[in-house]
Structure prediction request, 708 residues.
Amino acid sequence: MKKLYFNIHDKIQLTWKNPLWSIVPDFAVKYGYFQQAEFNENCITSIEINSGKPPEKILKTIKCSAERFGYGDDIIQSEHIHGRMRWTVWIKGLNSANVTVWYDFPFFRRFQWPWIMFPDHLIGLHIVEPVLEYKFSQLGIHILHSAALANHNGDGILISGRGGVGKTTYMMKLLRQGWKYLSDDLVLCSGHKLYAYPLCASFFDYFYRFEQDETIKSSSMIGALKHVRKRQPISFSVADSAEVKVINLLIASNSDQSKIIYDGKVGEDVVDRMLAVDKLERLNFTDIEELYGRFMIQLDQVFGSNVWESYWDSHKQNLATFKNLPCRIIEVGKQMDAGLLRLAACPL
Amino acid sequence: MHGIDNKKIITLKISPKLPRFVRKRFQGNDGFLSRISVHGKDLLKNIPDISLSLIPLTDDLIKKHTSNTQKIDCFYNFFDGGFYEKAKYKFSSWESMILGLNESMDSVTYAVRGDFFSQWVWPHRTLGNLVRLLFTHWRVMPVHAGAFANDNGATLMLAPSGTGKTLTIINWLCRNNQFYSDDQSYIYDGHVLPLARHISYWSHRYKGNSDAIPPTMPPLQYAEQKRLRNAKILRMLSFGHVGFGASLDVEKYWPGSVATPKPVTKIIILQKADSFSIEEHASTTEAINKIMGDFRFQTLPILRWVECARLTKKNVFLTEWEHKCRNMIVKLVNNSQLIKVNIPSVYSQDIYSKLENVIK
Prediction:
């Protein structure tokens, strides 16, 4: 039996049994930094991903055997439907230290588009990542939608902002100046401590093309597929963790030039805005039913828990520990230019 | 019983410049959008007449309000008094802009353009949520529940879709009872408003279960039969991506079955199980979480708009929206009796008769 082991900062041990074949080995690329040869017993939490149905003994404990949702002793069953992709998931021990997940879909479905193209990507996006994020939140670790960089002293800079505002562009410019890479999209955060996650810059996303003048332009679907074949690794030095020292918040605007709209310490207002950025990330897509936002909302909707509100309360408390750190809010102009870098230049 | 003067109408003005397929979609027999009309003018006397205009989105409008930097699939740009949204759903994509969003919220303009397929998507995804936002602003709370009228008041039936709300309503109506709606109930000041005029009837869901529909069900008329046939073809052609049911006009199939507004007295929470059972005292917090979770699931785009308002510090009145909705739900749950009902996954007349006792 083939097994993939991922050890994420000695916090979560992810074991993926019998991963599916796929043309784009997305999950392995995305989490490649964390992949290890063996099971690591130091981790606080372990998650095991299995394909196929759980054993009869466990299935029998599901009292409420509904078509879409059901639950039993310590187990949740839900059916995901997205177009013609449909599969059933069983999660056992969601609130305990050892979580076991099973997923199952009809045999012939796996030969249809888009399963045949990237099944492990879909399983990762719809099942593994929401469960990972849920477990992280239980360990007091939050996932911020920010780019993060560190210098050789272990001081970190956090660049928060909505998708498309220029986080990656800005990050690339700082990488050229000798900063180390932590993240360009999501970063794990516990108190002031930042941890790299999932360590794959999102210019590997198939919808972006990275050009010589370091601007990112969206490309057509066909252009994007070409890019998948031709994608080239970009080398940069990587950091594992860092301490937050400076915060930059980027906001899109209609003006021609970038400008600083706030320069001072982190206050209630900045915390509120950063929280909005993180919430928006969970609510970003109109057509995909995965992601942590949906997972949380579905738990509330079907099982009557209070995951959504309590998660954001604790997330806000974590952000509130950033108070009194130096902070800049920058309105990004129509032209993403060198001016942005000058404006955001940090005092570190 | 419900004369035209008893109606309170959100007027939808449709620009003649919109493509024909969009205009056709929104025109009722009388030239108005007849679906968004609320009975019970006495109850809603504090609410002004609201006008919602639908116009085509032009390049000039976009140039004025958006930035060039964000060329990604889905994005939202907020400005004072409205926002621009570019969205994608399965095969279709559309752009829309909402203008006139301010605290008075009485005349809102919705500008839209999109591809042919998006005509089936944006009315639900964006326009529907804009209407929900207008309703909640004026304290009319949409709840994803079926609503029955009985002698004492109204009974709400909460359930995830596919549990059997519509089947119960159809059975209820075929036994000469009154109701409010089968899917979305609108609650104002603790009273259910009889807003829905149609029942969505997806025949293929009940196929093979002859015991689900009562024998007294009126036969489907030609228009509905045709629509269900088209739905079947479209479902096959799109490999299950696109689906719709027939909407049965309540006045045509069960005349006089829409009740006048009554206060909510009971809330039934339905869930699927192996066998039928009733729990008399359900937990209040669980019910609130369920309704709130369901409400969030239905109004994801609005949640996004609210967070954008919070991030950009524009349209600040939106940031209180979620809190306001929660308060309305808490008040509703606290003032009514909660009952939890487990029903087996195969619906039958036997189950209905047990449910009927609970509803009454």
About this structure: Confidence is low (pLDDT under 50) at residues 204-233 of chain A. Chain A has two domains: 3-138, 143-344. The longest strand of chain A covers residues 241-252.
